[in-house]
Amino acid sequence: MRTIDYATVAAFLVGVFWLGSHFYKWIGAPDDFYLAGRQLTPFILAASMTTANISLFSLVGVSGTAYQSGISIIWMTWTGNMALVFSGLYVIPLLRRLRIRTVPEFLEMRYGPGVRSLVSILWIFRLTFWISVVLYAGVIAAQQLTGIHSFVFWILVFSIIVIVYTTAGGMWSIVLTNNLGFFLVMVSVLTILPIAMGAVGWWPGLAAHLPPQHLEFVLQSGKYNWKFILAILLLGVQWASLDQGLLQSAFSARDPSVVSKGMILSAIMVTPFAFLWIVPGLAAKVLYPGLPTGELAVPTLITHLLPSGALGLVICGFMASGLSTIGSNLGAVATLITNDIYGRFVKRNASPQQLLVAARAATLIAGLLMVMITWLIPYLGGTVDAYLTIISIVDMPLFVIAIVYGLLWKKANWQGAMAGYATGAVAGAVLRFGLHFDVTLVTLISGGVALLICPIVSLITKASETGQVDALFRLAHTDDTAKLISRHTTSIIGTWILGAGFLVFLAGVFMGSQSTSNASATAITGMLIYFAGGALRAKAA
């Protein structure tokens, strides 16, 4: 880096700090802090979600995995986008109708306070772990890109900036800095791709220098094979339905229709962009094959290939993506602490002003937890493996009790939910840490155990009071929300296209299990058809 690059980065960091903190005066009520007053439009929602999801985990961690294992890791993003479409049409609008702030709040409405308390505590640590992963990726990237190799320095720079502006402006600061980040991230990845590909001779150059399996989208064997695609699709549906950072943006939308349009637009926007961080990781494998860790792949490529001026701008884009993801999820953790812990156990009748003070204090607490956990990430196998380990254990059991049984089966009770979630998570932890099963099996078994235990325990224990459950189901499935499942011709056509696309996608994945030559093309074609159907459905909403 030269003087102009350092000046660009410094100006960016100061600018984000000022811009984010500026929205302090926009916060007049708790919902302004938590949910930006529920005023987001489809494009603002989509841009905010997109930037929060194109994190340094993707730009550094996922691209580093592509460096090590090949292009098939791209399904981690693509199946997540497919899940966004599904959840945006069928799940989140129902939850948005309930006007809740957090998933644990819904769980109390559905099952009672005990389930809410359990999930609140676990989910605070789950989300804090995630933002620690993103912070770690940001620190690694910043060290390599800037030449300033102090781990502590970069943790403090990122943490102070994002904690201060999130504490000051809440969701308004998060959303509007995310929209600035969206522009910078797009500029950055669009700058990197042609330079990296030109250096290796474009796609023919990659094909000539990489093993054939490195460029196969659906693999029969290996760490990220066809079974991984199915497992990460299930985890993607859970993420798109229950991730508090994502939901907090969705719940900030004006109405359920805006939620659907924003989520589907975000999914379609991110899908082609996935190449923009995957392919540079592959190019780095050709140019710099001996790197000690995959996380160094794209930072090394950038520092060696980009000219001064452009380098500083690209670094700003990388930092913007990290700050966006950390800010979104830091706000989510603060909301969980305030809404589900402080408001229930510390001060039940807190005034709006007291809730705001508590939310800002919770943001500081979450920030400190994030900083402490960041030091543990290297001992868990790096960013991607650490994140996949945690979500394979705890995420699918929550999806089972909250969505599968919570929204679809009235007989599920709090005893079944508690037992299903606990046994599923414990089974996942034993399999992963005790027996060293891979992420795919841990995901399927942890979810499967919850799927089995919840109804068994529910049927042999005392049933919940049906009046409250019936009222909840009626509120979630009102006619206003049911417009999303209307009989409009466009909606019907979109539904059929959506289903057909998903079947074609599954056919491609299972073809990959037999190492069929057209497996990758079939799976990708099915995914694109699926998105087309989702877009038609959203248009009819």
Please provide a brief summary of the model.
The protein has 23 helices and no strands. The chain has 541 residues and is an all-alpha fold.
Protein architecture, described:
- This protein has 541 residues and is mainly α.
- The chain is built from 23 helices and no strands.
- The chain has helices at 3-22, 30-35, 42-53, 56-69, 75-90, 92-97, 103-110, 113-146, 151-200, 202-209, 226-242, 244-250, 256-287, 297-305, 310-346, 352-374, 383-404, 414-434, 439-460, 466-476, 479-482, 489-513, 519-540.
- Helix 3 crosses helix 9, helix 3 (42-53) crosses helix 15 (310-346) and helix 11 packs across helix 19 (439-460).
- The longest helix has 50 residues, at 151-200.
- The termini are far apart.
Question: Helicity range of the residues?
Answer: over 70%
Number of helices: 23
Question: How many angstroms does the end-to-end distance come to?
Answer: 49 Å
Main sheet specs? none
Segments where pLDDT lies below 50 for 5+ residues? 479-486
**Count of β-strands:** 0
| Helical/strand content category | mainly alpha
Average pLDDT confidence is 78
Shape: globular
Instruction: Report the β-strand fraction as a percent range.
Output: under 5%
Using only C-alpha atoms, the radius of gyration works out to 22 Å
SSE string, helix = H, strand = E?
HHHHHHHHHHHHHHHHHHHHHHH
